[in-house]
Amino acid sequence: MKESSGSQSEKTGGSAAKKGLRGFVTALLIVAFIAGCGFAYWKITTKPPEGQTDISPDANDDAPTYKLERYYTILVVGDDQKGGNTDTIMLVRYDTQEMKVNVLSIPRDTLVNSPLANKKINAVYHNLGGMDALMEEVSELTGYRPNNYMLVDTEVFTKVVDAMGGVDFYVPFDMDYDDYHDENNDGVIDYVFTIHVEEGQQTLSGYDALGVFRWRQNNNGAGHVYMNPDIERIDMQHDLLMAIAEKAMNTKNVLTLMNIAKAVIDQCETDLSLGNIQWYFEEFLKMSMDNIDFFTMPTNGAWIYKTAYVTIEVDPWLQMLNESFNVLDRGLTREDVGILYVGRQIDLKNGQLYVEPDDLACTNGTEIDKNFLKNSN
C-alpha cells in the first residue's frame, strides 16, 4: 500500500510539473503572438511622411523644388511649461541617400522680423498664431518651409526617456533650481519645476534628464555659471540628445518603440501620423552615431533698447544652410531669406552691441517692423 501510495504521489507530482510546463509554454506562446502581432502591425502601418513638392503654391519651371526623394525636414519645438514662450526650437533634416541626420538649434533669443514688440523667435508660437506662424517665421530664416512639425511638451520628453530605461549621461556640475510659478500673480502656485542633479556619471530618469536639458542657472547664483547662457545651454542640450540617441539606437524591442511612438503621437501637437513616426524610428535604427550631427545657428549678441537679442551672422549661416540644411535644387542666397541684421558699423560699448531699429536691414529687402519693446522682458 505504501508503495502504491508513493507511486500515486509521483504521478500527481509529475502531472503538476507537466501542467506547469504547459502553462509556461502557453505564456511564452502568448507573448510571442503579441510580439508578432505588434511587429506585423508596425510593418503594415509604417510609412514615410508626405510633403510639399514645391517651394511655392504656383509651380513653374524656374521655381526651386524640394528634393523629397532624398530629404525630409521636421521643425521640433519644445514648449515652455509656463506657456509663455517656446523653450527649444530645432530644425531636423534627414538625408535618405546619405542616411544622415543634421539637427539645427535656433537660439530662443534670435531676432526675427515679426509684428510683435518682442521680436524673439521664441515669442512667435504663443503670441502670433501657433505652429503655422512659427513655421512661416522659420521659413524666413531657411528659405523653405519645413515639411512637418512636432511640438513636444515636458511630459512627452520624460515619458520617452523613461520608456528607454533612462539615459546614461555625465552631468558636468551640480544643478539646483526651484521654480514655483504663479502665472496670475494671485498667490496660487500654478506649477512647480525643480532641478536637483549632482555632478557625475549617472543614469538620468526622464524628469532629471528634462532638468539637465532646461537648466540655465542655480537659484542662489552659486556654482557653475553659463557665460553665454543661450548658446552654452544649447551645447549641453546637444550632448544630452546625443546620449538619448545612442540609447534609442540600442532599443531594438518593437513593443518599446511602439510605446514611444504612441506617447509621441498622443501627447504632441504634430502633423505626422503614427505610421510616419514609426518610419522615422526604422530609418533611425539603420544609422550609426557617426551619422548624427548637431549645429547651432551662428549669431551675435545685440541689445535693442533694453532687450537682449541675438542676431544671425548672415554669411556664416548661409554657408551652414547650404552645406547641411538645404533641401532645394540650388544654393540659397541672401535674397531667398528674410533675416534681420545690423546694417552698419556700430562701436561696442563696454563690450556690448547696442542697436536702434533704424540700424537694422533685411537680407531680401522686406520692410522692417520697427515696433520694439522699450522695456526689459
Distance between the termini: 95 Å
Q: What's the count of strands?
A: 15
Structural class: alpha+beta
Global morphology:
globular
Radius of gyration: 26 Å
The secondary-structure element order is HEEEHHEHEEEEHHHEHEEEHEEE
Assess the beta-strand content as a share of residues: 15-25%
* Main sheet properties: 6 strands, mixed
* Poorly predicted spans: 1-5, 24-42, 53-60
Given the structure, what is the number of helices? Answer: 9
Q: Give the helix proportion (percent range).
A: 25-40%
Average pLDDT score: 83
* Largest sheet: spatial strand order: 9-4-1-2-3-10
Write up this protein:
There is one protein chain. Residues 1-5, 24-42 and 53-60 have low confidence and may be disordered. The longest helix is centred in the N-terminal third of the chain and has 44 residues, at 2-45. With 377 residues, the protein is an alpha+beta fold. It has helices at residues 2-45, 124-128, 130-142, 154-163, 206-214, 229-249, 254-267, 274-285, 314-325; strands spanning 71-79, 86-95, 100-105, 148-152, 167-171, 175-181, 191-197, 200-204, 269-270, 292-296, 299-304, 307-312, 340-342, 354-355, 360-362. The strands form five sheets. The protein has a six-stranded mixed β-sheet with strand order 9-4-1-2-3-10. The relative contact order is 0.14. Helix 7 (254-267) packs across helix 8 (274-285). It has nine helices and 15 strands.
